[in-house]
Amino acid sequence: MSRCAMNPKVLVASLRRFLRASGLAISWLVVMGVQSPLWADILDVTNLFALGPGGGCPAGCLEEVNTSTNAITTIFAPPGGGPDSLIFAPGNKIVYTLVNQGEIGIFTRGTSMNTLVGGFGQPRDLALEPSQTSVLVGDFTAGSIKRVDLGTFVVSTLGSGYGGVDGITYDNSGLLFAVIGGTSSAEGSGTRVAQIDPITGAVLNSISGFTGLDGITFDPVTGALWVSDRTFSGLRKFPTNLAGSTLFAAGLIPVPDGLESNGAGNIFVASQGNRIFEYNITGNTTTGLTVVTGLDDLAPLVGLGAPPAVPEPFGSDLLGVGILAFLGYGGVRTSTRKGRR
Questions:
Q1: N or C: lower Cβ tally within 10 Å for the chain?
Q2: Tens digits of per-residue pLDDT, 61-89?
């Protein structure tokens, strides 16, 4: 038998397409956060694993959703509940925000270690940086973007004076973008998309005149930014030079919040407190998937912050991540807190 090398991401993408076409199970993990004005978090872990039936998460927790059977299974509950956003990081880490507690959590998969880092007003969205050694955190009430070193847990301020900060993302060339200008505890009339210098925090470019922009993602297929537009219940596409925008799926996605590209021509959207939607770019079609009460945000599906295509050590697959996290928060974990206020 001949041997050939295949990019693991290409292999996983092919398996996903096959499973979707064959109607086999597709699994997601969901963070439920009903204590927060933002509700939950969802991540495409793998199409190869699904847990048993379940659902309901009044305290705020991570859940797995099978979008084929619509089964929802609780995985674990972060301390205090109310999680808002979640990404994967190297070293078997899962980073998440706790809006109501003013903290972010860094959970190490395969261990019982969960580090809580304070010093935030209302931390919302996250972005793993290209170095993969730090994350950026949008602090909504502080009107700032903060950087957290994943090794030392030191928090520093990249920039401030932005107004409320919601979605944050890097494109594939290392440019940083964010949705800024939100007011009060909700997305206000002054929301805009801005390119931000990742070194100085200066606003390099922006486009304004929008109401209710929220989540943001970079799509490598179109080479554009996609942003959820809550006012028009749809999606906006922005070129990275921010020269304009085009509205898609208007009126089809109620209260769109977090969204992510799968790198294969689809944008997955969390309709807040409602369900998962899939928008196909080429076909300009919108499909409602699993109903998930309390749904909010999406973790990256490809690129920075996405789950590894080939799972790292400490577990045979990403299914183990949820199980270990659940056991850890069941009373057998140790917890390290840094800078809590």
A1: N
A2: 666 666 777 777 666 667 777 778 888 89
Report the distance separating Cα 193 and Cα 120, nearest Å. 22
pTM of the model: 0.78
Whichever domain contains 131, its CATH number is: 2.120.10.30
Confidence of residue 219 (pLDDT cuts 50, 70, 90): very high
Contact predicate 114/132, CB 8 Å: no
Q: Is residue 2 part of a domain?
A: no
- The whole-number pLDDT of residue 298 equals 75
Asked if residue 258 is part of any domain, the answer here is yes
Tokens representing 250? 């208007």
Domain that holds residue 204: 8-338
Are 131 and 149 a contacting pair, CB within 8 Å? no
Residue 52 CA to residue 48 CA, distance in Å, equals 14
Label residue 151 by pLDDT band (50, 70, 90): very high
- Amino acid making up residue 184: S
User: Within 10 A of 184 (CB to CB), how many other CB atoms are there?
Assistant: 9
Provide the number of structural domains found in the chain. 1
Q: Where are the alpha helices (DSSP H) in the chain?
A: 8-22, 319-327
The answer to whether position 1 is within a domain reads no
